[in-house]
Every structure is written in structure tokens, then in C-alpha cells.
Design goal:
The structure holds 2 protein chains of 2 kinds. Chain A is α/β, with parallel strands linked by helices. By secondary structure, chain B is an alpha/beta fold. In chain B, strands 1-2-3 form a 3-stranded parallel beta sheet. The relative contact order of chain B is 0.28. The chains are: A alpha/beta, B alpha/beta.
Chain lengths: ~140, ~70
């Protein structure tokens, strides 16, 4: 990974103003809907899967499954790692164009970095690209 | 697949820097688990998210992490 990132930085310019952009959130903070399967924290190697979170999901229906950071604050207010409510406010204010139809959460802890980089990350990117109608993505960690 | 512009909000700048993200912002001093600030601090969370989004429109220095200070944190 380090070798790849030393060669070049993949960079996509933004071709429109923010007020016309649809924004998607992708978080490594272990966020998912309460009715989705939690991330597997029993596996010492981590969990390479991700969960799709619909843009109209109620933030009270979201939770965190992640055992490698203190998510007490996120348990009280998920917006500290996954600012979906804030994104909605920015849309209401006209600062952004829209909230994407789909967002993604995964657990950013794994011992299988190669698979995370070569499989999970492209799968999330493809999901967002195909389904979310996003123009830009905001990434957050734990 | 077309490319999609991204901006990372990181609270582990030294870790994130190794991956050389195309655009990234570090809210200085924020703890892990507080990427946007503290619970209930809606105005702060909004400022952080707005500042991160603005990174997408500014002349970029790919691979670098921009630091921002939020004294109210």
C-alpha cells in the first residue's frame, strides 16, 4: 500500500459548486443500522464487510459496533462520527445540493489490510458510485 | 468507474498521512471517536463538516492534511 501511495495520489477534481453537489458519507467508525448484522468483533482479524445506510435513515436507528476505539460519544450522538443529521441541515441551508441515497459504514480495524484495500474499498466505491448518486464523499474514521 | 472526489476528516493525522489522501482535514486536538466534535455540539459539528466540504473546492495539495482549530471543542 505504501508503495502504491508513494507513486501518486489519486485525485479527482470537483467540477461543480457545493450547492449543486450530492454528498455521501463513508465511515470506518463501525456505524450500521440497528437491524443490520453487527460487525464481527469476535474475529481477531477484523471484519471486511460493510453496511449500506440509506440516506433517509433515522439516526436514532443507527449504532456502532467497533472495539478499537471508545465510541461512548457516538453512542450518545452518532453525528460525531457519522454526521447524517448535519448533512441534512446543510442541505436545508442550501450549502450542499442533496444528501445521497446511500452511505456506507465499515469497521476500520483489520489485520487483513491487503483485502481491505483491494476488495472492501473498491466494493464500497462501486456501491456508492452506482447507487448513491453522490458527487462527493466525506470520509470519517473512528 | 468514474472517480469521485473525496475529503477525509481525520483524528489520526499521523496514520492518515501514510496513505496520502487526496484531501484531508484534521480538526486539531479532536480525540478518536470525535471526528466532528462532541455529542450535541451541533454548531461545531456543522462547522467541521462545512470546512471539510470546502476543502473540495479549494486549490488542493494532494497527500497533505490541512489542520483547522476549533477552540470551542
Amino acid at each position: 500500500m505504501t508503495q502504491i501511495s508513494r507513486k501518486c495520489v489519486l485525485f479527482t477534481p470537483l467540477d461543480r459548486e457545493l450547492a449543486k453537489c450530492t454528498v455521501a458519507l463513508v465511515t470506518a467508525a463501525g456505524v450500521h443500522r440497528k437491524d443490520q448484522e453487527p460487525f464481527n468483533i469476535a474475529d481477531e482479524l477484523g471484519d471486511l464487510s460493510f453496511r449500506v445506510i440509506e440516506g433517509d435513515a433515522a439516526t436514532s436507528d443507527l449504532m456502532v459496533t467497533h472495539h478499537h476505539y471508545d465510541h461512548t460519544d457516538a453512542d450518545r450522538d452518532i453525528n460525531v462520527v457519522f454526521p447524517l443529521d448535519i448533512l441534512r441541515e446543510l442541505k436545508a441551508e442550501g450549502f450542499i445540493g442533496d444528501v445521497a441515497r446511500e452511505h456506507a459504514g465499515y469497521m476500520g480495524y483489520t489485520m487483513r489490510l491487503k483485502q481491505m484495500y483491494e476488495e472492501t474499498a473498491p466494493a464500497i466505491a462501486e456501491q456508492i458510485d452506482r447507487k448513491s448518486r453522490a458527487d462527493v464523499i466525506v470520509l470519517t474514521g473512528g | 468507474m468514474r472517480g469521485l472526489p473525496t475529503v477525509l476528516i481525520t483524528v489520526s493525522p499521523e496514520v492518515s498521512r501514510q496513505m496520502r489522501p487526496p484531501r484531508a482535514m484534521y480538526p486539531k486536538g479532536f480525540k478518536i471517536g470525535n471526528s466532528l466534535g462532541k455529542p450535541g455540539m451541533k454548531d461545531l459539528q456543522k462547522r467541521v463538516l462545512r470546512d471539510a466540504l470546502v476543502q473540495l473546492t479549494e486549490p488542493a495539495r494532494p497527500g497533505e492534511i490541512v489542520e483547522r482549530e476549533y477552540p470551542e471543542y
